[in-house]
Amino acid sequence: MPNDRIILENPCTYVTIGNMRKYVVLDLEWNQAPRGKELKTMPFEIIEIGAVRLDEDKNETDSFDALIKPEVYKTLHGINSQITGITMEDLCGQPNFCSVYKSFTDWCKNTDTFIFCTWGDMDLTELQRNIRHFKLPGLSNEPLMFLDIQKLYSIYKGNAKLKTGLETAVSELDISQDLPFHRAINDVHYTARVFKKISSPELEKKVSYNLFHTPSDRDHEIHASFDTYSKYVTRAFPDRYGLLKYKDLWKNECFVCGNRCRTKIDWFSSQSKTFLDLSECPEHGLQRSVIRLKKAEISGFYAIKITHSASDEEIKQMEEKSLACSQKNRSQYERKKHRVQKSNLSNSE
Fold it and tell me: Tell me, which fold does domain 3-210 have in CATH?
């Protein structure tokens, strides 16, 4: 895709200028069908875009805010109005999404280079769904690297699986609550303040990837190494069969040094879309890998593979699951074999 059709030319590169980093904190408000008849390709229609630009010290240097007149779900859902305080009267005289998106991307381009920051992982997906629906130039044709401030806050609190709400995080950090929540422009100010309060060079290495667009080819597949795990994202394949035959997916490599590992428990499937493996690096010990098959937003199937050090409890669970899986497969094989033998016997008679 030519560069005039995308906003970010290097969406999977951590954007830096020397030691300086630029950030665009983004938040959206959206509407949905009042009677639950949403389009599958765009369940939420954006009615507000809010963003702030941060310098390398996380100070706000500029802001963007625009309300949008809905063109798909033209009646405002009651719950959206209740949460945001936005009414149809507020939206009726506003520009449409195409116009606001053009203004927003022009504003983003004035930032030179930057990385998006959001609270949670939904905003970039819903933004790109709206872009696709209205047939506009995309943010990228590859996965987007971004900073999920909600995830960073969970790590900061010592529980990476925690999903804390923005309002709770603001309260816990004793940040002044001088703006009402649940308006895009206000929420980005709060997100920026949380980010500034918790940020550190180590924490900012915990980048996330929005996979609305999967890697376009093998050279663009994601190989990300963090301090406690590695993440591998494949390109998309037309069907699951082609994905499951992809040899790169099943390689056992140490998440620390990248060297090949020796298999201890070979790949087995605990569920139809999940595969597990236990391997050993001579230098860094036992490691657990999990592969999850995903349906791509655009088309086809891709996989995400996570590898990390295996705890004693995880090793025990894998041994039990692997044994149960083997017994189940053996039982299914015997039943199938019996059916074939019975069918052959009937035919011979």
Answer: Nucleotidyltransferase; domain 5 (3.30.420)
